[in-house]
Each structure stands twice: as C-alpha cells, then as structure tokens.
C-alpha cells in the first residue's frame, strides 16, 4: 500500500486523515516524505519517523490493530473521555491522543500555537464537561507548575482526570509539586515501537508483557510495531521471537521487573531523553571534542529538574587560568552542539578536574567521571 504524507506539525491534517488510516484505506507517513518504493503491508495505519534511541533516523510502522490495542488498554486503565492535544501530532504520543479521542467518539481539542500556560488554559476552557485527559512531556508540566500562582492555571491543571507524562524521568520534587496542586499525573513508559506508552506508573497495560533479559527490558503484546520501513535487518535485530513463538521488542533500556513492577534504570546505549527528545551522548561528545581545549573531554548524563535529563562536560584543565576558561569553553561547546544536533542536545555544565579517571584498558571510566560532577 502507498503512504500519504502528512506534516506531523499539522494536527488537523493528521486528525482528518486518521479515520481512513485506522480503516486501512490510506496509511499516513508522519515526519517524512515517502519514496515511490515505500510500501507497507495491509493493516498498516501510520509510519512515524523518529530519531530513535541512537539518534539514527528510523521509520516505525504501526498497524491499526496496534494503535487500537494501545488506546483500548489506556481507556481500560484510566477511563475514557475527551482529550486535549498539547503535543506534536507527528510523535506517537500525539497520534495516540487523537486515536483515543476517535475511539471514544469525542472531538479532541487542539492547543493553539506554542505551548504556554495561557494556551493550555485556553484549550482547557474549550473542553466540554466530563472526564478530561491530555498527554504532556515533563518540560511542559514544569512550565505549568512555574505559572501555578495563577488561579486559572491551577484550575486547569486540576481539571484533568489524568495527565499522561512521558518522555523521561520525572524528578520527585516536580511530581510532589504537581500533586499538591491537584494535578493527577500518570507516568508512562513506551516508545513508537510500542504504539506509545505501554507501562503506566510502573505497571504494564492489559495484554502487555515486560521482562528483563540480561538487564534489558523487553516488551511483548498487541501494541508492538510491525517493524521499520525499508530496514528488515534492523527489524530482525529489534523484534525477536522466542522459542514459544512470542514476539518481543528489545527496548535497549536497562531495567528491572520485580513483582510485576517495572523500573527503568537507564539506557544501554548512552542516550538520554531531554525534554522528550532522544540525545546520544556519544554524538554530543564527538561535537564537544571538536572545540579547541576540549579534545579530551567526556560527556556524562546529569539530572535536570526542567528537562528530565541533561549532560555535563568533564575535562581535565590545569593551570592558573583554568577556572577562568570555563565560561568561554562551555559557550563554545553549546554553540557547536546546538548547531550540529539541536538545542535539546546542548550540555548544561562544564566541570574542570585535575585528571579524568581511566579503566585498566585506558578507556575513560565513565562511571567514575560521572561521580566527579557535583550536584547542582
């Protein structure tokens, strides 16, 4: 079947094209222009372009059945009602807001323009009475919490039955502040390959199985993607079938499953999620090392209250003027990384040290280096 391209930023375009996509009549290509030889099998509904956990562009093929299974499992867990779209419709979380609304038989409210407290309040005011739902990333929630002195913002936040929050780890202080204001936050875990969030507050949705295999989280169930468009080798590596015939998605995430509760402890491939954007620290480090004076720098992950995760540059700097050089070096590194990888990838801090710890192999001891970064 041929794909129909729709700009992921055109929420109305995605919304109007979704019914035919879910019926299998006109699958949508979101975030890329399909080539003439880009065909999908019957049953495919959307193909979503994503940078993935490694920063390498991928095109995830999602069937109508997977999208429906995810939306139905979400409704079974948190209820059904009207949804407000505050995310790009080009991301799976945004697509799922529209799918859930479609299956609930309700018209979603589309947030107008840039996300701000005022636009969030205005969109909320256009929603009808009854259960309300939306999906946010932590940076959006932090923006609303910062504006919560405004009674209209507080009222809007507390009016939702659930605020699904995905993207990256949520600092405890942010979650506690949200709870104090009456915001009912549900932490979600998932990806495009799982048709969006498939674990809510540490528990898998109905029909979803999660196991930890040699420290890697793997997911099975009806929400799995068909694979990657035009990349059968990557599909075969990422989606594997066990001896019992069960198909599993290898997430690349480190984590544990204890008593049915899932905990994600990090990435296996040195990737962070900053403001909902996957950032490869390996790529950041390569860019940083092109800055004179930072040729031997190492980039490590650090927590960030607003963006969930960020990065810090750790470099051996010696001499009387080492401390004075830090601001200029950090500015140059942020400029270089921003130009090459985008603003979400820019390091937040530069930490000078006398020497970088190394392993017996001579490679940087990244765990030891990370320990050198003081808490902000």
What does this molecule look like?
This protein is an alpha/beta fold and 376 residues long. The protein folds into 2 domains: 4-197 and 223-242, Rossmann fold (3-Layer(aba) Sandwich); 271-371, GMP Synthetase, Chain A, domain 3. 31% of the residues lie in helices and 30% in strands. The chain contains 11 helices and 22 strands. It has helices at 11-22, 64-78, 92-104, 117-125, 138-146, 151-158, 172-180, 232-238, 281-288, 322-341, 366-371, and strands spanning 4-6, 28-30, 44-50, 58-63, 82-85, 109-110, 132-136, 162-165, 185-191, 196-200, 203-204, 209-213, 216-220, 227-228, 239-241, 247-258, 261-267, 271-274, 277-280, 298-304, 308-316, 349-353. The strands form 5 sheets. The chain has a 7-stranded mixed β-sheet with strand order 6-5-7-8-9-10-11, with helices on both faces. It has a 5-stranded mixed β-sheet with strand order 1-2-3-4-14. Helix 1 (11-22) packs across helix 3 and helix 2 packs across helix 3. The protein is globular. The model has no long low-confidence stretch (mean pLDDT 91).
Number of strands: 22
Mean pLDDT: 91
Oligomer: single chain
* Count of structural domains: 2
Q: What's this, in brief?
A:
By secondary structure, the protein is of the alpha/beta class.
Key attributes of the depicted protein:
alpha/beta; Rossmann fold; GMP Synthetase, Chain A, domain 3; 2 domains; 11 helices; 22 strands
Helix-strand blueprint:
Blueprint: E1 4-6, H1 11-22, E2 28-30, E3 44-50, E4 58-63, H2 64-78, E5 82-85, H3 92-104, E6 109-110, H4 117-125, E7 132-136, H5 138-146, H6 151-158, E8 162-165, H7 172-180, E9 185-191, E10 196-200, E11 203-204, E12 209-213, E13 216-220, E14 227-228, H8 232-238, E15 239-241, E16 247-258, E17 261-267, E18 271-274, E19 277-280, H9 281-288, E20 298-304, E21 308-316, H10 322-341, E22 349-353, H11 366-371
Helix pairs in contact: 1-3, 2-3, 4-6, 9-10
